[in-house]
Amino acid sequence: MADYNKPLPIVTQDSEPYWNAAKAHEFRMQRCTDCGAFRFPPTHACWQCLSTNLEWAALSGRGTIWSFTVMHQIYYKGFADEMPYPVIVVELEEGPRIASNIVDCKREDLRIGMPVQVVFEDVTPAVTLPKFRPA
Ligand SMILES: [Zn+2]
């Protein structure tokens, strides 16, 4: 953990509860308490009704791979040992889509529509990243 050398999230006032939940191994996203729309990435106002009222709703962590790509360029040295590696976009059961990484899955086994489940990787003492594994 101490030698983690990949990019880390920039925590903002809006996103801090998201990262705090991840650190507790809870998967939560903003949900508008006026219209029910989920908003991700976290924002100050609802994209649907402009309300600033929200709750941090617990998600199932289940979804399907909506898209993926395989990175062949080393943009960050921290990924050099994993080249080439996939980046996935998961469509969550509740609707939002999230870009992430897949674990416990061979690159050649990745498929659009594959069911996945969130897992949490404690990458530094302060940061936990939600990732996904095949369900
Ligand atoms: Zn709303």
Question: What does this protein look like?
Answer:
With 135 residues, the protein is mainly beta. It folds into 2 domains: 11-58, no CATH class; 60-135, OB fold (Dihydrolipoamide Acetyltransferase, E2P) (Beta Barrel), CATH 2.40.50. Helices cover 6% and strands 36% of the residues. It has 1 helix and 8 strands. It has one helix at 16-23; strands at residues 28-32, 38-39, 54-58, 62-71, 85-92, 97-100, 115-122, 128-134. The protein has a 5-stranded antiparallel beta sheet with strand order 6-5-4-7-8. Strands 2-1-3 form a 3-stranded antiparallel beta sheet, covered by helices on one side. Strand 5 and strand 6 form a beta hairpin. It is globular and about 45 Å long. The chain starts with 15 loop residues before the first helix and ends with a strand. The model has no long low-confidence stretch (mean pLDDT 95). Zinc ion (ZN) binds next to loops.
